[in-house]
Design goal:
Length: about 220
């Protein structure tokens, strides 16, 4: 299961392990994360919160997945990055030629007050990728693990989340492109090819030609 390199600051007293198997522990985690989001500023603090969440969630997730009889890979989280992305909430990548570590990244637009539950779910989503085979994607084993984690840890992990991670940044973009089939949303500042000719393109998530363009007034 993912492990993190030492950090300069002590990990705060967040509930983990057996505590996360109870509704009370899950509520305490959300409250603690929300408290930190209320006063968060700067990429370093966002990265530290993401690392702390990984350290807290990893042991509980590993236990649940192993109890469910699912194959779990023991990988070290090599890096945690905060990105400026508005199209992708999070990502998990695996260095070529190595199955012992992974890299996680999360959009900085996730880190705002009132978004604790969404942030926890997205971190858990990427951690689930880190636990499974590199080529599993959102296949059957991922879905089994997702269902079991949601039931056991009070999470709401989804394959393709319709929850927005860009509430604070939407004003920076003039065009919104929405897939009417799955709800996947993209934001653009300029009217590029996708904005001008949406019928020529397919959704990156569901593959359907159902893109609609909305211009911010």
């Amino acid at each position: 299961m993912p492990s993190l390199p030492p950090v300069d600051c002590a990990v705060p007293n967040l509930p983990d392990g057996d505590a996360l198997l109870s509704a009370a522990g899950q509520a305490t985690l959300r409250e603690a994360v929300e408290k930190r989001l209320t006063n968060i500023s700067g990429v370093w603090k966002m990265r530290l919160l993401a690392r702390d969440l990984i350290a807290v969630l990893a042991p509980a997730m590993e236990r649940v997945l192993q109890d469910a009889g699912l194959p779990v890979f023991s990988r070290r989280v090599r890096t945690v990055r905060i990105t400026r992305g508005v199209r992708e909430h999070g990502s998990c990548s695996f260095p070529r030629g190595s199955n012992a570590e992974c890299r996680l990244a999360f959009s900085g637009h996730l880190f705002f007050a009132g978004n604790a539950a969404v942030l926890i779910d997205i971190v858990a989503h990427e951690l689930l990728h880190a636990c499974l085979a590199a080529r599993e994607g959102h296949g059957a084993i991922f879905r089994q693990g997702m269902t079991r984690l949601n039931e056991s840890l009070g999470l709401h992990i989804e394959i393709h989340s319709e929850k927005t991670a860009i509430r604070q940044s939407e004003a920076l973009y003039r065009y919104k492109v929405v897939c009417s089939a799955c709800g996947n949303t993209f934001y653009y500042l300029r009217a590029g090819a996708v904005v001008k000719h949406p019928s020529r393109y397919r959704c990156a998530k569901c593959g359907k030609a159902a893109l609609e363009v909305f211009r911010r007034t």
